[in-house]
Design brief:
One of its GO terms (molecular function) is glyoxalase III activity. It comes from Komagataeibacter nataicola. Belongs to the peptidase C56 family. HSP31-like subfamily. This is Type 1 glutamine amidotransferase domain-containing protein. The chain is an alpha/beta fold. The chain is 31% helix and 14% strand. The protein has 8 helices and 8 strands. The chain has a 6-stranded mixed β-sheet with strand order 2-1-3-4-8-7. Strands 5-6 form a two-stranded parallel sheet. A hairpin with a 2-residue loop joins strand 7 and strand 8.
Length: 228
């Protein structure tokens, strides 16, 4: 029986400053998609509002524009998946074995307070599915609570784009909050690689998280290994 993966992507096109574009960090989707596709998994994409998923221009430049990203950009069927995505209300979480939150800075604005995404995540988790994120995707778990009222991330090991990496990326003054600090405030046991921007994956049972864009493939491989 084929496994089913639900990818989550942003609808946000820019920072608070409209002159600073953002969107999905494409390789964080394509690298995972490739891993899951090689195993024959069925995959779908959802976004907080539904509709178009913009692409972060920085992710379309070398070296981020790698073979995987180029192949997606050259495939009209794949690009169509990003031009018209369903919204959470269109999704039945019982259909999915795992949810995978992609990143790009845009998610900092539209992932945390999406009650629809929270409901899907809670349902996947509480039926025994896998919850996974990469890079800024972990912002999608900031406000997700379980049926008992506790934060999903409380007391669990997690990683995601670090404050050090935000500063090195030169955007620490433009983002709406420090995601690493907010995770810790919710009781998450945050971990990061010794060196910034290096691949780093943390698995705590059914919770699988990757620190940055370099971690997408390894995150997906860990999810696949757990799915069996």
């Amino acid at each position: 029986m084929s496994r089913h993966i639900l990818h989550v992507a942003t609808n946000i096109t820019h920072f608070d400053n409209p002159m600073h574009p953002t969107g999905l960090w494409l390789s964080e989707l394509t690298h995972a998609w490739d891993v899951f596709a090689a195993r024959g998994y069925e995959q779908h994409i959802v976004s907080p509002r539904g509709g178009r998923v913009p692409l972060d221009p920085r992710a379309l430049k070398w070296p981020m524009r790698d073979a995987s990203a180029k192949a997606w950009l050259a495939d009209p069927a794949k690009m169509a998946l990003l031009s018209s995505t369903p919204c959470p209300a269109d999704i039945n979480p019982q259909d999915y074995d795992a949810i995978y939150f992609t990143g790009g800075h845009g998610v900092m604005w539209d992932f945390p307070d999406s009650e629809g995404l929270q409901a899907i995540t809670r349902a996947v988790w509480e039926k025994g599915g896998i919850v996974s994120t990469v890079c800024h995707g972990y912002c999608g778990l900031l406000n997700t609570r379980l049926a008992n009222g506790s934060f999903l991330v409380s007391g669990r090991k997690i990683t995601g784009f670090s404050w050090t990496e935000e500063r090195l990326a030169g955007v620490s003054r433009e983002i709406p909050y420090n995601a690493e600090a907010e995770m810790k405030a919710r009781g998450a046991l945050y971990e990061k690689a010794f060196l910034p921007f290096m691949s780093h994956v943390v698995a705590d049972g059914k919770l699988v998280t990757g620190q940055n864009p370099s971690s997408a493939r390894a995150t997906a491989r860990k999810v696949a290994s757990l799915l069996g």
